[in-house]
Design a protein that fits this description.
Length: 580
């Protein structure tokens, strides 16, 4: 059984809306607690904080899954599952890799919050935020819907629609709801009983919702946030103009709230009737402005084209020598330290099967290399640990590293933080079989973990995730033992810019830094090849920039080590930092 933890924030109100929508009054709900080590809203295990889920999209997904699990009727269970999207993948990926999750969890709530603030201070010439314009444009672009033809043209389409819980019916608005929508300014002659048209596979096909044929949790989250904006509008004139400016959102909203239980849940959560009688406004006054955005990316599902591998190879070959030369002239000469105490060799044969990577999904060769990687990490981690320390294993995956630490050092507490549900479930299963009492698990992005800790560790955190882990450690003044990975995937974020250190910034620019990072990915298992040696040099330089950044924040013990043996992983650097 779970506990739902909410606060007085818009994400928490959105989660309350989902709870009301799916009639989950049976789920215990607790108001904000100061002792929870994560951002709200959150779901925790009733018997303690051994497992928790944090982040709007993660919590909403888990609520739907709980509703499905609690439903006994087969048809209703199928219908509830459709809210999770195709193969239950809607908003499943983390915000760092999914445009839709980032939009629903970060960009849209922030944009709505700023719009509400603008409406409170201004009564006209209010700029509609970019996030609403992006959503409006999303309804105008071509989409591909999985299995669209089997529901429309298959000989067994009726059986398939029933089996999968797909809703292909046109939403007809009854008279009571129609009058309500008219009073709210949602229906006029242009929008009544019309549907949004998008192109699928070069055929004109009706699309109802953001993800296709069925309403999903993405629709529910975005719909609720828009109604929070409408709820703050002073009269019908504002609502009417707002919807005219965003005509595609207007049509989509009608489709969303033509399901009476959705509108009822919104009204119940916001504690309002949403009726906005006009108070004698001037009919010709303009309340909202839509700014023209110069950037090309004006819709949510836009994906930047990946660099052409051949072109990237040529750019690296042409520019890498000059980049290295600039760093050398800037007196940047990093070195790799040697492990003085020797690598710890674990007695895997006498340890429980749940700890040994060979007992998991890895093949023999990979599980052997994983054991060697863990031994290298454990060597540096245990050398810095003290009794009673709190260790957080960020981007923990299935818990290969964190579970070993918890098993070896029962005098310390370990938390696994991972955003992949499958990996967390594997880790939980292993922990339960081991009966470990000093380890907890959090399903969330790493930046949603807010608890205090003494050491942050991470084994092969991809790209910028390594730098996010490093920043969390710097923020908490915690020691760190990090093995970076996927250097070419480094991207700037709202809080992280590259190069990270002042010394590197004085020698090379951002574009040159990304070329250096891309060249670090040219490592391979052929350790004597020229490419591998050049890749290793670039790895060391990139990690040295991270070390210098840590030194600027008070870390006086910092080193770069190489794993032993080198062939346990092409990405074999370990960066270690400590504040004495």
């Amino acid at each position: 059984m779970k506990n739902l933890i909410i606060g007085d924030t818009s994400p928490s109100r959105c989660v309350s809306f989902i709870q009301t929508l799916f009639q989950m009054e049976w789920l215990p709900t607790i108001r904000e607690t100061k002792h929870l080590p994560c951002k709200l809203p959150a779901l925790t295990a009733q018997d303690g904080n051994d497992f928790m889920t944090s982040g709007l999209c993660n919590v909403v997904r888990q609520l739907v899954k709980l509703a499905v699990k609690n439903e006994t009727e087969g048809a209703k269970k199928k219908q509830l599952e459709t809210y999770l999207g195709y193969k239950q993948g809607c908003l499943k990926a983390c915000a760092a890799v999914s445009n839709w999750t980032k939009f629903c969890e970060v960009e849209f709530p922030l944009g709505v919050e700023r719009l509400i603030e603008s409406m409170a201070s201004n009564h006209h010439s209010i700029n509609i935020p970019e996030c609403l314009i992006k959503l409006n444009e999303e309804f105008t672009i071509p989409k591909k819907i999985p299995n669209i033809w089997k529901y429309h043209k298959s000989k067994k389409k009726d059986m398939l629609v029933k089996r999968d819980g797909v809703d292909l019916t046109v939403n007809k608005t009854d008279d009571v709801l129609k009058n309500l929508l008219c009073n709210m300014g949602f229906i006029n002659e242009q929008t009544e009983n019309k549907r949004i048209k998008l192109v699928i596979d070069d055929e004109n096909t009706d699309i109802i919702y953001t993800c296709g044929l069925n309403m999903t949790i993405a629709d529910l989250i975005l719909c609720f946030y828009i109604f929070q904006v409408i709820d703050k509008m002073s009269c019908l004139c504002y609502v009417s103009e707002f919807l005219k400016k965003l005509k595609h959102i207007h049509k989509w909203l009608i489709l969303c709230i033509s399901k009476p239980h959705v509108l009822k849940a919104i009204q119940s959560t916001l504690k309002t009737t949403l009726l906005k009688p006009c108070s004698g406004c001037q009919g010709d006054q303009e309340y909202f402005n839509i700014e023209e955005f110069v950037q090309e990316k004006t819709y949510i599902s836009f994906h930047e084209k990946a660099p052409n591998p051949k072109q990237m190879h040529l750019r690296i070959s042409n520019k890498l020598p000059s980049i290295r030369s600039k760093l050398t002239h800037g007196d940047i000469e990093p070195c790799v330290s040697s492990c003085e105490q020797g690598i710890v060799i674990l007695d895997w044969n006498n340890m429980p099967d749940e700890i040994n990577p060979t007992q998991g999904d890895l093949n023999v060769g990979r599980s052997l290399r994983k054991r060697q990687q863990i031994e290298n990490m454990v060597t540096y981690i245990t050398s810095l640990l003290k009794a009673g320390d709190k260790v957080v294993d960020f981007c923990s995956g299935g818990g290969h590293l964190g579970i070993v630490i918890a098993y070896l050092r029962k005098d310390c507490k370990v938390t696994l933080v991972e955003n992949k549900e499958e990996s967390i479930n594997k880790a939980l299963s292993r922990i339960q079989r081991l009966n470990l009492a000093n380890i907890s698990v959090q399903l969330s992005n790493l930046d949603y973990y807010t608890g205090a800790f003494d050491m942050g560790v991470s084994l092969h955190a991809c790209g910028s995730a390594t730098d996010l882990v490093l920043e969390r450690c710097i923020e908490k003044k915690a020691s760190f033992v990090i093995c970076p990975c996927c250097y070419g995937s480094i991207r700037p974020t709202d809080n992280i810019k590259y190069p990270k250190s002042d010394l590197f910034s004085s020698c090379i620019n951002e574009e040159e830094y990304y070329l250096l990072a891309h060249s670090a990915d040219r490592t391979s298992t052929d350790y004597e090849s020229t490419f591998n040696k050049e890749g290793k040099k670039s790895m060391v330089l990139t990690d040295f920039d991270r070390i210098l950044h840590a030194k600027l924040h008070g870390y006086d013990v910092t080193n770069i080590y190489s794993m032993i043996p080198l062939d346990c992983s092409p990405k074999n650097n370990i960066i270690v930092g400590k504040i004495s």
